[in-house]
Backbone:
């Protein structure tokens, strides 16, 4: 399935270019670009799922790595379409145009990451390191969203935020063990677990910090510690990657 994945991913990059240029053109062209990219991402998701299935059920962690890679591309495309909608018919120096360029950059980064992952899947010696690199990139993107001024759609209790930090503790222990063993399967499992643990922690932290009972001072502290925790965890993963 590798060649089919590469071909479809290339088509998606072309769709991305049309989406970005479509923001400055007619509504019809923009609609065509959006529809084309939606069709292409559906095709790409299907062929990546077939590729993951072809690995066999005895390697579920690598299957998860592939599925995560296509999920990242789909999320980036959704954000890009949203940014394109916001920038449509706006002047070149409008802030929404800068957001559009940023979204397009993330989109290309995630497609590139998917292609690197597909290539690494065939090489057992690099599967773990590639999974770890992809997770590090994903966490950095999640941190950018966390640090944005966007208010979460819902709030949660401080207790929920505390509960989510337990996942970080478990993932840290797993990362240390993977750094000691250096086995590719341990590193892949660490990458998959780390990705979920940090994303859950950031979501819970931001939702709790915007709880109605939380003061602005406490919110600022909670957001700062959420950032520091993530940066510390990223440093840990960089060390595991180095090892």
Residues:
């Amino acid at each position: 399935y590798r060649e089919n994945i590469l071909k479809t991913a290339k088509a998606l990059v072309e769709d991305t270019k049309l989406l970005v240029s479509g923001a400055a053109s007619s509504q019809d062209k923009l609609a065509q670009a959006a529809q084309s990219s939606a069709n292409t991402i559906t095709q790409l998701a299907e062929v990546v799922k077939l590729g993951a299935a072809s690995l066999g059920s005895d390697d579920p962690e690598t299957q998860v790595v592939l599925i995560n890679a296509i999920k990242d591309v789909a999320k980036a495309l959704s954000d890009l379409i949203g940014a394109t909608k916001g920038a449509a018919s706006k002047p070149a120096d409008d802030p929404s145009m800068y957001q559009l360029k940023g979204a397009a950059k993330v989109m290309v980064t995630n497609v590139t990451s998917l292609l690197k992952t597909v290539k690494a899947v065939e090489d057992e010696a690099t599967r773990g390191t590639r999974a770890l690199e992809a997770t590090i990139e994903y966490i950095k993107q999640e941190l950018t969203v966390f640090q944005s001024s966007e208010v979460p759609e819902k709030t949660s209790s401080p207790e929920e935020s505390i509960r989510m930090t337990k996942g970080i503790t478990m993932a840290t222990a797993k990362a240390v063990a993977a750094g000691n063993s250096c086995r590719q399967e341990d590193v892949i499992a660490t990458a998959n677990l780390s990705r979920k643990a940090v994303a859950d922690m950031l979501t819970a932290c931001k939702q709790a910090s915007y709880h109605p009972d939380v003061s602005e001072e406490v919110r600022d502290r909670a957001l700062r510690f959420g950032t520091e925790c993530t940066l510390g965890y990223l440093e840990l993963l960089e060390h595991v990657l180095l090892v």
